Amino acid sequence: MHLKANLLDEEGVKRALVRISHEIIEHNKGVDNVVLVGIKSRGIPLAKFIKDTIFKATGAELEVGELDIGLYRDDLTENNGPIVNDVNLNVTVVGKTVILVDDVMFTGRTVRAAIEAILKHGRASAIQLAVLIDRGHRELPLRADYVGKNVPTSKSEVVSVNIPPYDKKICVDIYEI
To answer: What is the pLDDT of residue 69?
Structure first.
């Protein structure tokens, strides 16, 4: 793999997340009934950044849950079976607007799995999706409600979101395989 391009630097990532945060507030006419759920792993720090940005804008303290959908994936073979991890949702979804937060949307399978996992915890009034990068190539009829950046890619490219605590710097890069 070799680096093809830097899509977003740290300031670009932060601008995109601030815009997403304000779109969430506007679209939901506030955030009184909203909870954020970060999809493990990089969706969790992105959800926390959105939470902090919404707090600065509104004074509202949103709950943030964490979701590891490895157990719910349908695209893992039996030989590479899903790793069973605890779902650390830590938020009530019943009657709430749940905003799933992920770093990259690609085929839509992770989102489908996340929706299934949320539904197992109760009936949300709505489920919305916020992604930092939408790279296309959907295999399922899903779309994000909030997108930081649309990036048309080929299937031979890899989009890498770098964000602490998993990475040393904040940026989004694209690699050619």
So the answer is: 83
* Helix or strand (DSSP H, E) at 118: helix 109-119
Q: How far apart are CA 94 and CA 126, in angstroms?
A: 10
First to last CA, the chain: 5
- Which DSSP string corresponds to 8-52? E-HHHHHHHHHHHHHHHHHHTTSSTTEEEEEETTTHHHHHHHHHH
Say whether domain 2-23+31-74+83-176 belongs to CATH 3.30.930.10.
no
CB count within 10 Å of CB 167 equals 13
Determine if the pTM surpasses 0.70.
yes
146 exposure class (CB count in 10 Å sphere: 0-12, 13-18, 19+): buried
Dihedral sign from CA coordinates of 93, 67, 117, 15:
positive
The stretch 37-51 carries a mean pLDDT of 96
162/72: higher pLDDT: 162
What does the domain layout of the chain look like in residue ranges?
2-23+31-74+83-176
How far apart are alpha carbons 139 and 160 in whole angstroms? 20
State the pLDDT at residue 80. 47
Alpha-carbon distance of 149 to 141, in angstroms, equals 19
